């Protein structure tokens, strides 16, 4: 059966309209989970530090005459063990004074173990083969939270002879895996809280508001409130089936489209330039010139004439060359995307270090809509 002409015309018109409509599936920028862009108040590490002795070194320890603190520590340790060395001339080279550092993880329980780092404090040549003796590790409040002890593993080595030596890595630093035993816990009851704060790792007003909206839409109650660009406060909603830990577990997987400030980061030492995707530039004209000065010294030896009783002399001979290279005035068109901006700057045909100065000059004119951060 053949459809009437007006039916075929209507189907064709509707098909043309549908082909010209935009796609029904919107495209979004990359999103991140809430747990990857925020830190939870109270869930943090704490730094520990201690002073100790590494023994068992093969003659690569501190020279006690140049490291009086090592000698005093050694004598004090021996006296506590019942060995009296007062007035004796201790000349061992198998001991090194070290600083021991560690990070106490959040919610670490008493009896669990953590890794520690060891670094020589005196003039020891290497910690290879050494063993750290019992070392208390204290926090910022002066209390002991862990005790470290064990064999030190270093990442380098040192070998030497009478006329040469080879050093690989840093043999005066090392690490002890599971080398500290936690003796005291930090009292913090996360599950007992009814309100806490989320700290954004990259503070931004838009991102903070989007996090709050995502959480409130998921819970269905006013649970999250953005307080500032770096803080979102969570409050346990009435009737919620669980505590604050359950709430964090429910929302940490939510995806949020993050926003960021337009920024250009410049490392002048290495010539590295990193631009954010929102960097824009208005139309500007740029010209650049380089002045290269070359100085070469070619001294000439002048011999005296025969029978003149003269002496041989050296006369200076300097070659000085100045080269000025200039580029014509180039127009960098107004950019809408980062790729257009990069293409416009690359069209100038200049190196990264000259590009740093040009970007700073464009910023001074007000044509660059971005913040420049110099490392």
Automatic annotation (TrEMBL):
Signal peptide location: 1-29
Subcellular location: Bacterial flagellum basal body
The entry's keywords: Bacterial flagellum, Cell projection, Cilium, Flagellum, Periplasm, Signal
Source taxon at top rank: Bacteria
Classification via Pfam families: FlgI (PF02119)
Chief localization: other
Keyword Repressor: no
Alphabetical list of InterPro entries matching this protein: Flag_FlgI
Protein family per UniProt: Belongs to the FlgI family.
Subunit structure: The basal body constitutes a major portion of the flagellar organelle and consists of four rings (L,P,S, and M) mounted on a central rod.
NCBIfam families found in the cross-reference section: PRK05303.1
Cited function: Assembles around the rod to form the L-ring and probably protects the motor/basal body from shearing forces during rotation.
Protein name: Flagellar P-ring protein
Organism: Devosia albogilva
Primary gene name: flgI
């Amino acid at each position: 059966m053949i459809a009437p002409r007006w039916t075929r015309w209507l189907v064709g018109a509707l098909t043309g309209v549908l082909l010209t409509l935009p796609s029904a599936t919107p495209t979004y920028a990359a999103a991140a989970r809430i747990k990857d862009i925020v830190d939870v108040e109270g869930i943090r590490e704490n730094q520990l530090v201690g002073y100790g002795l590494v023994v068992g070194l093969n003659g690569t320890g501190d020279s006690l005459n140049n490291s009086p603190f090592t000698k005093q520590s050694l004598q004090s340790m021996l006296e506590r063990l019942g060995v009296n060395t007062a007035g004796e001339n201790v000349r061992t080279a198998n001991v090194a004074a070290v600083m021991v550092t560690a990070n106490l993880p959040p919610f670490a329980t008493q009896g669990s173990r953590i890794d520690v780092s060891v670094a020589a404090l005196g003039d020891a040549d290497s910690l290879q083969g050494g063993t750290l003796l019992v070392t208390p590790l204290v926090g910022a409040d002066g209390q002991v939270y862990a005790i470290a002890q064990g064999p030190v593993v270093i990442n380098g080595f040192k070998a030497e002879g009478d006329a040469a030596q080879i050093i690989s890595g840093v043999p005066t630093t090392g690490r002890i895996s599971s080398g500290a035993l936690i003796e005291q816990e930090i009292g913090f009851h996360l599950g007992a809280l009814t309100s806490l704060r989320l700290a954004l790792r990259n503070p931004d007003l838009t991102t903070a508001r989007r996090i709050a909206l995502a959480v409130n839409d998921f819970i269905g109650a006013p649970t999250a409130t953005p307080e500032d660009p770096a803080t979102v406060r969570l409050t346990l909603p009435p009737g919620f089936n669980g505590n604050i830990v359950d709430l964090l577990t429910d929302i940490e997987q939510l995806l949020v489209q993050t926003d960021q400030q337009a920024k250009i980061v410049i490392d002048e030492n290495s010539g590295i330039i990193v631009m954010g995707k929102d960097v824009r530039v208005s139309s500007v004209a740029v010209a650049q010139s380089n002045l290269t000065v070359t100085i070469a010294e070619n001294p000439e030896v002048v011999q005296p004439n025969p029978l003149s009783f003269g002496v041989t002399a050296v006369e200076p001979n300097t070659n000085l060359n100045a080269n000025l290279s200039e580029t014509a005035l180039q127009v960098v068109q107004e950019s809408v995307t980062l790729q257009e901006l990069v293409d416009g700057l690359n069209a100038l045909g200049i190196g990264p270090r000259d590009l740093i100065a040009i970007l700073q000059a464009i910023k001074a004119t007000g044509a660059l809509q971005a913040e420049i951060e110099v490392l």
